[in-house]
Design goal:
Two copies of one chain form a homodimer.
Chain A: H1 7-12, E1 16-18, H2 24-27, H3 34-39, H4 41-56, H5 70-85, E2 88-92, H6 99-108, E3 114-118, H7 123-131, E4 138-143, H8 150-171, E5 176-181, H9 186-194, E6 197-201, H10 214-222, H11 227-240, H12 250-264, E7 269-275, H13 280-294, E8 296-298, E9 304-307, E10 310-313, H14 324-329, E11 334-343, H15 358-361, H16 368-385, E12 390-397, H17 400-421, H18 432-442, H19 448-459
Parallel strand pairs in A: 2-3, 2-4, 4-5, 5-6, 7-10, 7-11, 11-12
Antiparallel strand pairs in A: 1-12, 8-9
Helix pairs in contact in A: 5-10, 6-10, 6-13, 11-17, 12-17, 13-17, 18-19
Amino acid sequence: MPDYRRRAAREAMSVRLDVNGIMADTLGAAGITREEVDALAPRTSEITHSLRGRRSAGELPFYDLPYQKDALARIKSVAAEVRAESDTLVVLGIGGSSLGTKTVIRALGTDAPRVAVADNVDPWSFATLLDGLDLTRTTFNVISKSGETAETMAQFLIVRDLLLRQLGAVDYARHVVLTTDADAGALRQIVHDEGFRDLVIPAGVGGRFSVLSSVGLLPAAFAGVRIDDLLAGAAWMDTRCQNADLWKNPGYLLGTLLYLADTRHEQNIVVMMPYGDRLHGFAAWFAQLWAESLGKAETLEGVPAHVGQTPVTAAGATDQHSLMQLFADGPADKVICMLRVEDHGRELPVPSAYADLDPLGYLGGTGLGKLLNLEQRATELALTKKGRPVLTLTLPQLNAFTLGQLFYLFEVAVVFAGGLYRINPFDQPGVEDSKQLTYGLLGRKGFEAQRAETDALLARKRDDYIL
Amino acid sequence: MPDYRRRAAREAMSVRLDVNGIMADTLGAAGITREEVDALAPRTSEITHSLRGRRSAGELPFYDLPYQKDALARIKSVAAEVRAESDTLVVLGIGGSSLGTKTVIRALGTDAPRVAVADNVDPWSFATLLDGLDLTRTTFNVISKSGETAETMAQFLIVRDLLLRQLGAVDYARHVVLTTDADAGALRQIVHDEGFRDLVIPAGVGGRFSVLSSVGLLPAAFAGVRIDDLLAGAAWMDTRCQNADLWKNPGYLLGTLLYLADTRHEQNIVVMMPYGDRLHGFAAWFAQLWAESLGKAETLEGVPAHVGQTPVTAAGATDQHSLMQLFADGPADKVICMLRVEDHGRELPVPSAYADLDPLGYLGGTGLGKLLNLEQRATELALTKKGRPVLTLTLPQLNAFTLGQLFYLFEVAVVFAGGLYRINPFDQPGVEDSKQLTYGLLGRKGFEAQRAETDALLARKRDDYIL
């Protein structure tokens, strides 16, 4: 294993950002010019200054998760306990409480020990999951910052009842770990009352920035992922993103280019397209980060804005046979961000056969991973030929160190882009209404007005518009 | 089991399209008016007439897949043979050769017998899949219309070699079923030469319209899915989509409304958001259908157009905690299409506990499926309140009959929308370039010019644009 305390090891395992494919030098008219980027300099140095100040003041604690000490020791200790007791960890969480874990487990997890993530209230899939568990060797990690996420609380009530019935009042508590706020919320009270083990979500770290906190690290450590390397990767990206020169700062440059693509080049869609199945989770994690951080109705000054680039997830090479036709020939409204893994860790040689049969013969002697990477390169260049912007991120390998870099890179990029859009990248006011209407429909006390509102809206439906 | 030869059974199990949430009556300015739809009448009757004629002339054979007879008998017979010999069917296919099967299996499949779909050339995931197979009880279904899809052919060469080595030259052929064109292509020649079993992809049925052909039906039948019900559902939707009144024709109305949303209301994104995990595959199937059919550079008359609405997949209720912030507050550039399942087939009651703890107490006595459906309704109405267009499709249950309806509904809708855009919904010229550049990089004979082209493009990259 490389020792990432050595700079040479970090350099050799650096994630590389290639922006050639989005710049006008390569792309012509649809591309971004150096001048466009440089013209933002007054604003970008303002943002840089402001973020640095807020970070120093402790207002943006996600930045410092790579350097956590006490919390990390606690996470490792709980993970070791749970690992000794259980073969399966089931995460009950949704959104920011699950997407990071799904990413890490999909990328680096194994079948045993197994981490399952239940992030929906679909009765079929949750019942099927529960059916397949050996409860005596299972721990449930219930994750909610607020301690009142309806979906997660409903799952928790079902699981708690099941554990009580099957394992009894003495043993059941040992099968639950609650991850929640240090002080506030219903889950915190339950920890006190029932004596569950718990982990703390650091104050000021929102769901979509929480993968490198207890939220993502406990399941990762349980699964045997090298969480020190995850954090070391993030720290290395932090170092790289301190560079005052925008052209040498991957996070700031990435945020700036996507902002310019959206606001100046009508590229209101960004496609995250990993060439590697184990990175599919990352694409979904990115989609939440980008959508929820930047999709805002108002600027910081309260001016109506309705901004935000729409993230789309795609799979290379698979979606070359699906979405690519649209990306290549449809409206010029997208930036394609490709993820490329140089060394996939395994290779499958393609045997030579049917040498005289042209559509198969040429494949003999290549390898499956080589083919995948050649397809990435060919598709990137084919898009360039058509004037379609592409960003390429290359991972030397897919491991905890490179994945940690990716997480941190996009967190830095989205916060910086938030500065350019002049919005608050840390809130999500737009989903409040749907939560409250749900409470009304469920008959929660205090939400009678919302119930009346939904009734009125439903009454307005015209029957002849239902086919 | 309901007998779908009875009209009452079909009516009771009909998928319902609710367009209230996209119409101006409900939505105000962002909505579509009845007048806008009716103004298209000359064009829509032209398209209706043209499609009817082409269907009668046998030019659009996908329309008639619900009524296939001989092919169906052959599919069932091969499925029964394979089922007797194998516990696992591995589909080697990509794009239209895999997305339909992934949809059907995700929605209606079981763990045993198991259908695995290998739709990428990721060496890690393909090697992991192969590692876990008992080859003596596994059959591989290799699917490629052209018989020269590079990804599928590479997988096939690996699998054939593996089978030959492990099972020997006498037995290996019995573990492969090829699904390809009746006459043309390399796979057809291989069927002749090596004596594999085969199924025919009907002439004129393209990949994304092939789920109800041998492509999707063999794996479905192997998995025990009621393929007669799939076809009966499609036939029922066909009947409903014959209605000459656009306002009573769900396929034509759906295609028209999404076309108008895109071209007249700047809603260039359509989000497919099933509330039910088993429908996630359907969202990806839809994404291919919509993107690849409508994303076109030119009109039928050869006029540059660059049209096509971008499909986004989302998961209800999960993505209410992820993408929904953007959908609710971001740019007004989306139509959200929600899928709702009235009866999920299983229910998990939420036990009452912590009755005096407000954020949990109100949940006691509900059910997980009920919660999911209330969230769908609340989110639909919250979007309506914000003036964001929503289409809702309701399935009484998720079964083969309703899934068959969904497939056919969107196939009809996309072909009709193609008529409105004046593009060819059946081709995909935009991905040819990337294939050819890949051949060049692989050193395939005859593609030396493409190799030179990629070399030239790569040489243009600036080092200072790679961070």
